[in-house]
Amino acid sequence: MLSAPFKVLDDQISILDNTQIQSLRNIPAIFKTSFFGANRYYRPLVTLSFALNYRWFGFNPFFFNLTNLFLHLLVSLLVFKSVSLILKNKVLGFLTALLFVIHPINAEAVSYIAGRSILLCAFFEWSSFILYCLFREKKKIVYYALSLFCFCLALLSKESSVMLPFVLLAYEFFIKNFVRRDILKLVKNISPFFVLLVTYAIIRKILGIVAIPHGFMLKDILLGIATFLTSIFGYLRIFIFPYDLYFDRIFPLEKSFFSGSILGVVLIACVCLFILIKLRKHIKKEMLFFLVFLVFTLFPVSQIIPLRLQPGYIIFPNHFWYVPSVGIFALFVIVSVFVYKRISPIIFRIMIILWFVLLSVTTIQENIYATNEEAVIGKILFYQPSHVRAHTIMGLKRAEEENFKEAEYHFEEALKADPFNARARISLGKALVDQGQYWQGISQYDQVVGAENLEKTLNENKTKVYEILQNKYEQMLKSDPENPSIYYSLGVVYSEKEEFLKAISLYQKTLLLDPSFDNARQNLCYGYHMLGEGKKAQECLEGKLP
User: Fold this and answer.
1) Cys-Cys link to 51, which of 21, 59, 332, 381 (CB 3.0-4.6 A)?
2) Which residues touch 394 (CB under 8 Å, ≥6 apart)?
């Protein structure tokens, strides 16, 4: 992964085209603006880390990748420490951390530079958790203060860190054996974390970084949650036997609450709940903690706030599991110890060694894929041929190579699945313009809905096309000054640029050369109307002008 170049799209936006990272003088601005240019994400520490990378190494992707790898190893050490504290066993902590390091489910989070938010968030979350545990054991206020500070840093890295206070509550209940008489102590210890959450929300409100997906019907939200639950079982198979990993994994939205997969999940959930209730006195409190930890850390991506990469699908990529995977791995280790005591040790060891080899080889393979973005995108399209984001990225790559026809194909495929995708629509327009199909390109630009942070790009693209067309028609008039169609076309260009006086003059010239040119007359009347000359517009419609 260290030799991987910057990726098209996300790395382009957050690193290569991000002027904020090119000077540390921009730090105040970094803490006032949203991540990725849209008002949905507030991750200033991620942008700051990119700024430090740039300050020391420039736009060298090797060091950006190396930073990610270094963070992953640090997080792994924190996982070892955390699990060891909970299980009171360093061997089990080591095995959990080893799984965390080598399992391919986490390869995406590490090799995806623009996704550094996950690594930073995990680092500060686990740091805060460990410091809180040390505070509870040693009663030193310095650990508590540092825990709160690290929680602040986690919030400034990724939104999912808001669940940490709930994880701490689970720690108090299951690991510290909370009893009712300690309620005041619990409130005293945990309430400052919730105060920080409220403060964080207020800061985002003040900065205007509060946009969340909207316009979803209740049924769609509930089906999204149901799809999320069914997808978890698919991921459980991937955790054990990861043979079909691909970046930006999406799942088709369930069509009905009575589909076979949903009913199956409900049945399995009921059986598991029944078993938990029956065996509650025999289940270790550490297992219950990690089960609750899993629920809490997956909650932000549970589709309660819909996460849609494209219509008809939920987005649930591998990197969403980076923090929750610790719960899975810890449960695997605990269960493995139970199984180890009840079967042949030799057979068990052989099975575990083979499984670890499989995981390691798959992780190596995933990191090799990560060095070639085209291979990554090709793998996505192999498993999910209608993947909008993959088609868009592949189209952008083809456009960079000036293979505009193939770029056009990928953008069209993206728009088949998501007709309102602004980036794909703008990119298709650009690909058509680059092939000399100027008016077709403008037609695509005019169909863009909700450009948001792409509004500037859209307007710049339109301006460039109109400049090209203006120069083209002006040159044509020099060689063919009596052609009414050229005057008309040039008039349309000026109309689109909202230069209506010039447009009116050109439409008048068109009608002088060809009085039957109806489109020119209609546009002339429209030009008068746009200039606020209602009387002339009416006379134009009645045929009295020009």
Assistant:
1) 21
2) 374, 377, 381, 410
Cα separation, 467 vs 434, whole angstroms: 14
d(CA 366, CA 376): 9
Confidence of residue 39 (pLDDT cuts 50, 70, 90): confident
- Which H or E element spans position 252? strand 250-252
pLDDT in tens, 230-262: 999 889 999 999 988 999 999 999 988 888 888
* 328: Cβ contacts below 8 Å, ≥ 6 apart: 239, 294, 321
Query: Above 80 in pLDDT, residue 92?
Result: yes
Q: For residue range 50-68, what is the model confidence (pLDDT) as tens digits?
A: 999 999 999 999 999 999 9
Structure tokens at 500: 């209506």
Q: Which two tokens stand for residue 506?
A: 């050109």
Distance separating alpha carbons of residues 512 and 489, to the nearest angstrom: 15
H-state helical runs in 88-140: 90-102, 107-111, 116-138
Amino acid 315 reads I
Q: Is 483 left (phi over 0), alpha (psi -120 to 50) or beta?
A: beta
Helices (H), 212-284: 218-240, 260-278
Sign of the dihedral defined by the CA atoms of residues 326, 246, 300, 4, in that order = positive
Q: Where are the alpha helices (DSSP H) in 246-372?
A: 260-278, 285-298, 325-340, 345-370
Which helix H or strand E contains 184, and what residues bound it? helix 183-207
| Polymer length of the chain | 546
Q: Quick one: how far is CA 388 from the chain centroid? A: 13
Q: What mean pLDDT comes out for the span 430-458?
A: 91
Q: How many CB atoms lie within 10 A of CB 266?
A: 14
DSSP state of 359: H
Tokens (6 digits) for 376: 């990554």
251 φ, ψ to 5°?
-130, 135
**Of 216 and 25, more confident:** 25
Q: Is the pLDDT at 36 greater than 80, yes or no? A: no
